[in-house]
C-alpha cells in the first residue's frame, strides 16, 4: 500500500478543525437566542379591570375605576362608569387622584407602572394595549386642601338642595288632627295616618281657627263651622276642594331682649372655653415660674388660636407683670390674667356697636357676607329679631339666590321676627335682590335693611367679584353702613384666611363669630381682630333664635377664666 501523501493529511486536519468550529459556533448561537414564548404562569397576576382589586400604589390609593374625587363639598362624587378598554398586562393611568382632606395636592400622578419586581415578567408584545381615555376627568378646582370643611364647598352642591320639593298628596276627606285626639273624640275613619304631615306645607290653615301650623283641616270651607277635632261630624257633601282661605297671620314670637345675653349664654362659652383659663391659671397660680412654665403659657395661648404674635406678646406682658408685682395666690393670678387678656382683646378696638340705626332719613344697610355654612342666614335672622325687639322696622333681603332653601330659611326668620322679606326665585341675580330690598326699605320707611348673601368660595374670583357687584349695586341707592363678615369659630386659623380674602373684595366693618359654643378656641377673637383691624361685634352661641350676643371683652374673658 502506497504511503498517503502528507498534503492529504493536512487537508483532512483542516476539514476536521472547521467542522469542530462550526459545531461549537452553532451551539453557542442557540444558547444566545431570546425566548419569546410566554411562561405558563405570569409572575404578577393582574385582575381584569373593574372587577378585581388593583395592586395598591403609594399612599394606600388604588388605581382603577373606583377612585373617588373630592369636590368643593368634600362630598365624594360617584365615580364615572369605566368605559376604558381592558388591559390585562398594563394597569391604566388614572385620570386624576383623589385628594384626601388635609393632604397637599399631588403635583405628579400616582405611579401606575408595574413595580420593580415586574422585571420578572417576560417581554411580551402588547398589541392590544390602547391609548388611555382621551377625555380625562379634570381635577377639582379646589386649591385649598387644608382639611377644613365648607370653604365654599357648597358652591357646587348646596347642602340642602334636595329638601325643597312640594309633594302632591291625596287630601283627606275630613279634618285631620296633627295632635293626639282627645280620648272622648272618635277619630275620623277616613283620615290617613300620614296625611296631616304631608298636607301641612301646601294647604293654608283655616282662617277662623288659630290652629297650630301642622293642623290643616282642608275640608273646612269658610262657611262651615267645623270643630277642629270633630272629624265624624263633617258633612259628607262637603268636598275636599281647596279653599282659598287667607293665609294665617304669621305668629310673631316674643323676642328676648339683647341686654345681658352674653351673661346668660356665658355657660355655653365656659363649657367649651375654660380649658384655656384653667390651664393658664394652673400655670400662673403654681408660684415661681421657670422658663418651661412660660413656654407652656405661650403654648396654651397658641393652642387657643390666639396666633403666634399675640401669644408671644401676652406671655411677655404676663412675665413683666409677674416680675414687677408677683403673684401670690390664685386670686391674684386670675386678676392679672383677666386684665392682660381683656387688654389684648380690646387692643385697637374703639367701637363694637353694630351700625343698624337709620340716619339721614333712610334705613341703615347691612350686608352679611362669609363662606357658606358659617351661619350667615341664621345670623341675619337672629339680628333681625334683636332689632325688631328694640322697636325697629326691618327689611330682609334674601340675596343668597344660590342655595335654594336659603330664601325660605330667611323668610321663616322674617315671619317669626315680624320683618318684611324681599326674595326672588333661586338663581336670580343676587345684586338685583339686594337692590330691591334696599328700595323696599326706603319706600317703606324702614329702619334697617339686612342683606343675606350667598356663601362665597373665597378662592374663586368669579363669586367674589359677584359679591363686590352686590355691594356696588346697593350703593347706587344707599351707602352700605355695615359689612358683617360671619366666621365660624370652629374653623380656627382657616377663618383668618377667609377673612383676609373677603376684606380685599368688600370693606369689612365688623365680624360675627359664630359657633363659639362648639369650640375651645376662643382665641380666634384676638387673632382675627388683629388680622383685619376690625372688631368682633357679635358672637353666635347656639342654634337657638336668640343665641346671638353682643361681644363684650370683659364677659368673654370671664367666661374663658371660668368665673
Ligand atoms: N352651634 C351653633 N350653630 C350655629 C350657629 N350659627 C349658625 N349655626 C348653624 O350653622 C348652620 C349653618 O347656618 P346657616 O345660617 O344656614 O349658614 P349660611 O352661612 O347662611 O350658609 P349658606 O347659605 O350655605 O351660605 C345651621 O345649622 C345653623 O343652625 C352658632 O352660633 N352656634
UniProtKB/TrEMBL annotation:
Protein name: Signal recognition particle receptor FtsY
A Gene Ontology cellular-component term: cytoplasm
Membrane association type: Peripheral membrane protein
Biological process according to GO: SRP-dependent cotranslational protein targeting to membrane
UniProt domain SRP54-type proteins GTP-binding: residue ranges: 535-548
Positions with biased composition (Pro residues): 88-98, 174-186
One matching Pfam family: SRP54
Transmembrane feature ranges: 6-29
Reactions mediated catalytically: GTP + H2O = GDP + phosphate + H(+)
UniProt keyword annotation of Transmembrane helix present: yes
Source taxonomy: Bacteria, Bacillati, Actinomycetota, Actinomycetes, Nakamurellales
Organism: Nakamurella alba
Function: Involved in targeting and insertion of nascent membrane proteins into the cytoplasmic membrane. Acts as a receptor for the complex formed by the signal recognition particle (SRP) and the ribosome-nascent chain (RNC).
Keywords per UniProt: Cell membrane, Cytoplasm, GTP-binding, Hydrolase, Membrane, Nucleotide-binding, Receptor, Transmembrane, Transmembrane helix
Gene assigned in the entry: ftsY
PROSITE patterns assigned to the protein according to its UniProt record, in alphabetical order: SRP54
Amino acid at each position: 500500500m502506497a504511503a498517503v501523501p502528507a498534503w492529504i493529511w493536512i487537508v483532512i486536519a483542516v476539514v476536521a478543525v472547521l467542522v469542530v468550529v462550526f459545531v461549537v459556533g452553532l451551539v453557542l448561537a442557540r444558547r444566545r437566542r431570546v425566548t419569546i414564548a410566554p411562561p405558563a404562569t405570569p409572575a404578577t397576576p393582574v385582575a381584569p379591570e373593574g372587577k378585581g382589586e388593583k395592586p395598591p400604589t403609594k399612599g394606600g390609593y388604588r388605581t382603577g375605576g373606583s377612585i373617588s374625587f373630592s369636590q368643593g363639598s368634600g362630598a365624594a362624587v360617584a365615580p364615572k362608569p369605566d368605559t376604558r378598554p381592558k388591559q390585562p398586562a398594563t394597569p391604566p393611568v388614572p385620570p386624576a387622584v383623589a385628594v384626601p382632606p388635609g393632604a397637599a395636592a399631588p403635583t405628579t400622578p400616582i405611579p401606575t407602572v408595574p413595580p420593580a419586581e415586574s422585571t420578572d415578567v417576560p417581554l411580551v408584545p402588547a398589541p392590544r394595549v390602547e391609548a388611555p381615555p382621551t377625555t380625562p376627568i379634570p381635577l377639582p378646582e379646589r386649591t385649598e386642601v387644608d382639611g377644613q370643611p365648607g370653604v365654599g364647598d357648597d358652591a357646587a352642591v348646596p347642602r340642602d338642595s334636595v329638601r325643597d320639593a312640594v309633594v302632591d298628596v291625596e287630601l283627606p276627606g275630613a279634618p285631620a288632627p296633627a295632635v293626639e285626639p282627645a280620648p272622648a273624640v272618635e277619630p275620623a275613619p277616613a283620615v290617613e295616618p300620614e296625611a296631616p304631615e304631608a298636607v301641612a306645607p301646601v294647604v293654608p290653615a283655616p282662617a277662623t281657627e288659630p290652629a297650630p301650623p301642622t293642623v290643616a283641616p282642608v275640608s273646612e270651607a269658610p262657611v262651615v263651622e267645623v270643630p277642629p277635632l270633630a272629624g265624624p261630624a263633617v258633612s259628607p257633601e262637603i268636598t275636599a276642594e281647596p279653599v282659598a282661605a287667607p293665609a294665617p297671620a304669621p305668629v310673631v314670637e316674643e323676642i328676648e331682649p339683647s341686654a345681658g345675653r352674653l351673661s346668660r349664654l356665658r355657660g355655653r362659652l365656659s363649657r367649651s372655653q375654660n380649658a384655656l383659663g384653667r390651664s393658664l391659671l394652673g400655670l400662673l397660680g403654681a408660684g415661681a415660674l421657670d422658663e418651661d412654665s412660660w413656654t407652656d403659657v405661650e403654648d396654651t395661648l397658641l393652642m387657643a388660636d390666639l396666633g403666634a404674635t399675640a401669644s408671644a406678646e401676652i406671655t411677655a406682658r404676663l412675665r413683666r407683670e409677674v416680675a414687677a408685682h408677683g403673684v401670690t395666690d390664685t386670686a391674684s393670678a386670675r386678676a392679672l390674667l383677666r386684665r392682660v387678656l381683656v387688654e389684648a382683646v380690646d387692643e385697637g378696638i374703639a367701637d363694637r356697636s353694630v351700625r343698624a340705626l337709620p340716619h339721614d332719613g333712610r334705613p341703615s344697610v347691612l350686608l352679611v357676607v362669609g363662606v357658606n355654612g358659617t351661619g350667615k342666614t341664621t345670623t341675619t335672622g337672629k339680628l333681625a329679631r334683636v332689632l325688631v325687639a328694640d322697636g325697629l322696622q326691618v327689611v330682609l333681603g334674601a340675596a343668597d339666590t344660590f342655595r335654594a332653601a336659603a330664601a325660605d330659611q330667611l323668610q321663616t326668620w322674617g315671619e317669626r321676627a315680624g320683618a318684611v322679606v324681599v326674595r326672588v326665585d333661586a338663581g336670580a341675580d343676587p345684586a338685583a335682590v339686594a337692590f330691591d330690598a334696599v328700595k323696599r326699605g326706603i319706600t317703606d320707611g324702614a329702619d334697617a335693611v339686612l342683606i343675606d348673601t350667598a356663601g362665597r368660595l373665597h378662592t374663586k374670583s368669579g363669586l367674589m367679584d359677584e359679591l363686590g357687584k352686590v355691594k356696588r349695586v346697593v350703593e347706587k341707592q344707599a351707602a352700605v353702613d355695615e359689612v358683617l363678615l360671619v366666621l365660624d369659630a370652629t374653623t380656627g386659623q382657616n377663618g383668618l384666611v377667609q377673612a383676609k380674602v373677603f376684606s380685599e373684595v368688600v370693606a369689612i366693618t365688623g365680624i360675627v363669630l359664630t359657633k363659639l359654643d362648639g369650640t375651645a378656641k376662643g382665641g380666634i377673637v384676638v387673632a382675627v381682630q388683629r388680622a383685619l383691624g376690625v372688631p368682633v361685634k357679635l358672637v353666635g352661641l347656639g342654634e337657638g333664635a336668640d343665641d346671638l350676643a353682643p361681644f363684650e371683652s370683659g364677659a368673654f374673658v370671664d367666661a374663658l377664666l371660668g368665673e
